[in-house]
Amino acid sequence: MIRKNHQLVDSAVSPVVGVMLMLVVTIIIAAVVSAFAGGITSETKKAPNVQIKATYSQSRGMTMENLGPDTIATYPTTVWTRLSESFGQTEKSVWQINKTFIINDPDLKWVGQYNSTLSKGAWFQSNGMSGVKSWAPGEVMYIMPPYHLCNNTQVGLTSITSYAYNYTGNLNKEFWLELKTNDGKVFVKTKVRIEP
User: Fold this and answer.
1) % of the chain at pLDDT higher than 90
2) What is the CATH number of domain 50-195?
């Protein structure tokens, strides 16, 4: 404090502190805005917005139709089946479907062995390359016989198991068909009735 004519002058302290506080607040706000605009926060890719319809026949295989509105990229998508409540207390029974069995043409019968013509119709080619890249609205994907049987779609079960989809005692029961992102998040699921 400076004395002028025997009076204390402290008016300079308050404006300096006020300006410093405004500067600090402005810098913090600028840093937060910059962090969000610059992508410091984790950016997650949105899962597709879709609905699917599926059928399962013990004799004809399985069909899955993308009802849209989005196209599904097949490479980062996994397909799972889960027993529904119609099977009893079995909600934890879940199986991932091998993507080499999922094809875009019902006339492709030979999957699982590398064949340049047939394997291109599969989501994942048996030689390790990606096949069908996307699944557009209105398109139907297939799992044709014999690849729809439990030893392929429910690995670890046999056809005589009461939880197998192709077990005749399970006609008219239902299971869940789920599509997941490669980080395991379900982005669409539908119930599928087991038909003859």
Assistant:
1) 40
2) 2.60.40
